[in-house]
Amino acid sequence: MEFFEVLRKRRSVRRFQNKPVPKKLVEKLIEAAFLSPSSFNKRPWHFIVVDDREKLLALSKAKLGASGLATAPLAIVVTADESRSDVWVEDSSIAAEHIQLAAFDLGLSSFWVQIRNRMHDDKKTAEQYVRELLGIPENYRVLCIIGVGYPAEKKPPHGDEVFEWEKVSLNRFGEPWK
Questions:
Q1: Strands (E), 56-174
Q2: pTM for the whole thing?
Q3: 70, 35, 33: which is closest to 55 by C-alpha?
């Protein structure tokens, strides 16, 4: 598939078939993350692959909007050692996006669950909840969870309406691009 076709057709899916993701495909997803660029090549990330049904159900309760993880056969928790890089958020975000693009290329679907700066409940952050559940050390931050699996829903590709050219300037903010 052509790259721009992938970009148009990849959509977030939150309902999955009850079908495991083969280990060879999981390895490809992680390889895609490792191939992502990072500032000064510091590569601060650490990925936690979760395929245990009970843990997936628990992760689905990390925050409002994470319930799709309850049907996902796989989740990849994207964390990073913040002591290795002051731009761990950016580096890890690029790696997470590589995972999502690779998933689509491999015939899978995915969705992003934001964890950083989100609340689990009125007393605990989603990050604290995930850190406790998965035994993540304090110097590692939790950016997001990528739910992955075979889709149980189909969404149409993005149309041209996503091209908001008025949000693009040429040489100076507010100068029309087109």
A1: 74-81, 109-114, 140-149
A2: 0.95
A3: 70
